[in-house]
Amino acid sequence: MTPDSPAPLTRTSVLAFFAADHVAVAPDGKMYVNGAFFTLLRFPAFPATMLTLGIGAVIEMPFQDAMQDHVLRIALRGPEHQELPVGVQANFRTAPSIEAQYGEPQLVPFGVTIPSVEIPSPGVYHLVLWLDNVEKATYRMRATQLPMTISSGIPPRLGEQGR
């Protein structure tokens, strides 16, 4: 089947980009995710620490970009749009598999889990994904202060994420 335009053959797409408690990618390309797609972080006080921050992304690279070097960078922006010292960078190159059809795009799964992420204050935070120095996707999360519950006598876990 011939596409209506060259865009499917030439455009890079971010098919998924999200936060989770834990993300890992196996050597066979399968992504293993726990506690994904939360948007609310609840803490009893600030600055606060998330025990872990998993980040997952799936990028569809066009056939024409195979065998070229690429740079993926992900950072966390704070409420004042400042880049926080939380992020990762990966250099990669795609190659068609032996089963690939000519012209078929390549899926590039990316997953990382970062321990002890400091959240300095309440507000809106964004994970930002750049591919080859071009911003391609953002993921929004909001950090809020939730006072300890006196009636239960048990404070919420530090860094507990809302679902």
Q: Within the largest sheet, what's the order of strands? A: 7-6-9-10-4-11
- Give the beta-strand count: 11
**Helix content class:** under 10%
Order of helices and strands: HEEEEEEEEEEE
Class by alpha and beta content: mainly beta
Q: Which CATH class?
A: Mainly Beta
Contiguous low-pLDDT stretches (5 residues minimum) are none
Q: For the terminal residues, how far apart are their CA atoms?
A: 41 Å
Residue fraction in strands: over 45%
User: What name does the CATH topology carry?
Assistant: Immunoglobulin-like
What Rg, in angstroms, do the CA atoms define?
19 Å
Q: How many structural units, i.e. domains?
A: 1
What integer is the average pLDDT?
87
Q: What summary fits the major beta sheet?
A: 6 strands, mixed
Overall 3D form: elongated
* Individual helix count: 1
The second-level CATH architecture is Sandwich
What does this structure look like?
The protein is mostly beta strands. The protein has one domain (7-147): Sandwich (Immunoglobulin-like), CATH 2.60.40. 2% of the residues lie in helices and 56% in strands. It is built from one helix and eleven strands. The strands form three sheets. It has a six-stranded mixed β-sheet, with no helix packed on it. A three-stranded antiparallel β-sheet has the order 1-5-8, with no helix packed on it. A hairpin with a 2-residue loop joins strand 9 (123-131) and strand 10 (134-145).
Write the layout of secondary structure elements.
Elements: H1 7-10, E1 13-20, E2 22-25, E3 31-34, E4 40-43, E5 48-61, E6 69-77, E7 83-93, E8 106-119, E9 123-131, E10 134-145, E11 161-162
Parallel strand pairs: 4-10
Antiparallel strand pairs: 1-5, 2-3, 4-11, 5-8, 6-7, 6-9, 9-10
